[in-house]
Prior knowledge:
The protein is of the alpha/beta class. Helix content is about 40%, strand content about 20%. The strands form two sheets. It has a ten-stranded mixed sheet with strand order 1-12-11-8-2-7-6-3-5-4, with helices on both faces. Strand 6, helix 13 and strand 7 form a beta-alpha-beta unit. Helix 6 packs across helix 10. The radius of gyration is 29 Å and the shape is elongated.
Amino acid sequence: xxxxxxxxxxxxxxxxxxxxxxxxxxxxxxxxxxxxxxxxxxxxxxxxxxxxxxxxxxxxxxxxxxxxxxxxxxxxxxxxxxxxxxxxxxxxxxxxxxxxxxxxxxxxxxxxxxxxxxxxxxxxxxxxxxxxxxxxxxxxxxxxxxxxxxxxxxxxxxxxxxxxxxxxxxxxxxxxxxxxxxxxxxxxxxxxxxxxxxxxxxxxxxxxxxxxxxxxxxxxxxxxxxxxxxxxxxxxxxxxxxxxxxxxxxxxxxxxxxxxxxxxxxxxxxxxxxxxxxxxxxxxxxxxxxxxxxxxxxxxxxxxxxxxxxxxxxxxxxxxxxxxxxxxxxxxxxxxxxxxxxxxxxxxxxxxxxxxxxxxxxxxxxxxxxxxxxxxxxxxxxxxxxxx
Length: 388
């Protein structure tokens, strides 16, 4: 019987290779990132994710742009590059507020964004605000080649009468002048909206911003290996919706990293990230990626994943593990061949191969491992006790 059970166990072991899960005592970050496509880094301690990000940066083959909502990451990267690590780094934050909002956008693109903010903010006079904004930018464009938030705020420091005077001096036409002169209430609303936009961006820009950087300036993007933009704001709709516009308009090929940013369906940034992930490289980093994006429905384009087992959410973790699929788990099973009778009191049993469907990685399988890594949802999964 023991010989038969051992034979059955060997057959089960062969059948269970279908699972394609490798258990190892150590695994190198660099091996993962050199092969990874769109990826997710989630759960664990913050330091785990920082170490993964630094390894990702060291393996990068193209420029990296990080949209960041974690106040600690900036200092982590400043220290990382000051230690002499390869590459150049630039940040746009309260320590370097040189991000130029609207720079390189067309007047119509700016007006469309302002209209969206007005609608979201509940303004009832959206149409006349849009007319005022169009006329205002027509006048401003006579004085600056690339209208931006800072140049708009500069002109808005003047009264409507003075702005009309600027327009007449440039012969912009009475139809443009009339949209300013007869829409005083819209002018007040427009100023409120622009002030709200500036407030949302106050951590990365100034009223007199002289920089020329945003995601539409490909020449500035290509100057540095890693660009960090802090987009944590008291008004996430304004700032997230703006970066949705920039991501859709940007033609530059860079590796986009989204780190601890509050995303939702409403502001459009999540959809823009999903769309970009179909044609460009994108990485999502979060203490809980499902809290950040809402559901696994938004993760279909992110097959390469690092799930740290520390602080692993039972519910969200199971949702992520289900993405890896299931397999038929085979095991030796004792089968009753006949029941005991008066004439044959010893029951007859036989060892056969039993089977049940299991997830390729279950929560219980993670015990003793520091991380679960996958280069693709249908490829090998690695459970490791140490990352190097």
